[in-house]
Amino acid sequence: MKDLDKFEDYINGELEEGDLWEFKKSLEADTDLKKQFELFMAVKQDITDNKKQMFMKELNNIHKAQQNTANKRIRSFKRSWAIAASLIILAAAGFGVLSIRTQNSNQKLFETYFQTESAAFAVRSASNTMEQPVLDGMQLYELHNYDAAIEMFEKSPNNLMGKLYTGLSLIELGEFDEAIYKFQFIVEHNDNLFIDQAAWYQSLCYLKTGKRELAIKNFKEIAADNGVYKTRSLKILKEMKVE
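^ thats the sequence. predicted structure below, dont judge the formating
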């Protein structure tokens, strides 16, 4: 029962940061848990499909009842109206289902490909040359104190590493649109060490916020280069069924 509650919280985006990370790690490491989650998702989809079938059956029953109780002229009128109404409902439902499926697909891809970026290596490799506010901010980031980390990074507003980890902190806080803006600053700066990371995480933010076409454009550009995110971009484009 505990796992079922966690599965439900996960697909509804209701897990806290720490629980979400632990759950994702558990799915990767625990084969049985992964199988249980896949079964849970399959059952949930079946329930959704059954609800749609019941809804359509109910519409059909109402329509038949109207046919049996009305005279020929009224029956004909009502039948035409019922068909038109059903078509409208089906069209709206179809659009809604498609929209929900697209959103769920975007969400699933984001959850699959986003991983919290550690600051430990960056701190160790650049601590001698790093500006003190950025160094302090990285340490706060590593402690998951993202609000305080952002405040510290803002004391060195033109530092590109600070910009990158500001964007990553904003992702952890769920501020995806603001994170996109921070990553764009790095991309537009052009010749620096953090473009690949910024473009990749910006693409994931586009995906998370429903800007699918912008995400695809970014992923294609990343895939066209020989950077560290080339393989991942090709893979995610394939999963998005993009030629």
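The radius of gyration is 24 Å.
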